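Final report, Chapter 2: Outcomes

The project's central promise was a pipeline that accepts a single protein chain and returns its three-dimensional structure in a standardized token representation, suitable for archiving and comparison. That pipeline is now operational. To close this chapter, we reproduce one record exactly as it appears in the project archive, with the input sequence first and the structure output second.
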Amino acid sequence: MALYNKAAEILDKVEQKRGAVKTLVYDSKFQNIKQLFALVCETQKYSSVIQDIIDTTKLLKETKLRINLAKVLVYDLLFGQGLKCGGNWKAMMLKHRSRLQAALARMKVKQKVSRNEDLLPTNVRNAGDQLPRYVRVNTLKTTLEDVIDYLKREGFSYQGHANGIQDLSGLSKNAFIGDLHLPNLLVFSEKTDFHDHYLYKAGHIILQDKASCLPAFLLNPPAGSHVIDACAAPGNKTSHLAALMGNKGKLFAFDLDAKRLSTMSTLLLRAGVTCHRLANQDFLKVDPQGADYKDVKYILLDPSCSGSGMVCLRDGYSEQPEEQAQTQEASRLQALSAFQQRCLSHAFTFPQVQRVVYSTCSIHTEENEQVVAACLQQNPNFRLVRLLPHWPERGLSPHTHCLRASTTKTLTHGFFVAMFERQSNGSQAILSQQTQPSPSVVSPEGGTAEVEEDIQEELCSPNEEQDSSAQKKKKRNRKRKKHKATQ
């Protein structure tokens, strides 16, 4: 019984975005960690299938179980190795077993499949197993070189820095490599587990997907700056911002969920973050004119979203009529998009803000490019910044200055990032911007190697983005004519 209660509790916390699955499992101190982790992951994987079985059999009405507790019990009964409990729960589930099995059988007939796993979409089947394990070095407590040396002494084999995305996959069990885009990110094989490792427990390394590291890295606030993390929990991006700031300055972190904020406080303590100010507050209700925020120049906004880019949260099969399911999904995305637009427009109202990074773990255009387009139109004083020109996946046209990420093209969870910068004097801001220093990557020999054109400071509106090539050509022609005239 303890196993199912704990698994349901972790699924609740994941839905509330209070942490990643592995972190929540290992922090639970449950006696059999591997058993708990397997149950939670597999229940997530079959979540939509199990939800339909529960709905069609009206199991919740019959049993009065909480939804996530019902899900883990149904998973083990129908898809797992059988129930690992006795007493009332086992008796209750066995009472409904024939109806649950019949609902699963009807689902297979309708889908014309014979195996349980065939009910899952192709992109869900084993998708998570293809992603490398990303480890961010926490520079508040250590250095990249020290972590590499420590791991080498433990028997790991350092392969230097990656030259391409292909170098990040197929790593052997004890091999690891430096990421090609982010300077303090190490990449390991997908099976590598650090939750019991000293470096993790001491806060020297952060287990964070590469795509999730992009927002703070691209915002790149300097030491001493005033920064807002608008929707901060569970806190990995906040700790990343603090590391980039060298713990110097002020980092305001807001979140509406008190429980998530409590979890975040523990994470930040372990990471050695001291420059933060946590507030259990709705970002939309934060007064931009408040005295505390008069010097805020950088804002990171990662608002609530559909989570459709997260491998473990992707929608699977649904028994709902297709038209009904599409209508419900469209309505949900419309509501999320409206909320995200309000948050982004609110960020633009802070009087001294110069840069705003907007990100989601969504693959839907409604939450990404459409939000960007609407906010650019409503806020003409801000322009997009072209990000990482060599990144393999761009935002959908015309917003190619933005970044997208996916399991196939970037070997990460699905993600979207856009960065806006205030232009001070109309079009002149395009000609007289300050160039952000290029982040440096520690080379295998311990020196530094500049990351070529990590962030190209080219600001544009949607129309300017389409016309930029023609404008550059005209500019070059004018320069040639001027040069000839002076000869």
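Archive annotation: The chain is about 40% helix and 15% strand.
This record, like all others produced under the grant, will remain available to the consortium after the project formally closes.
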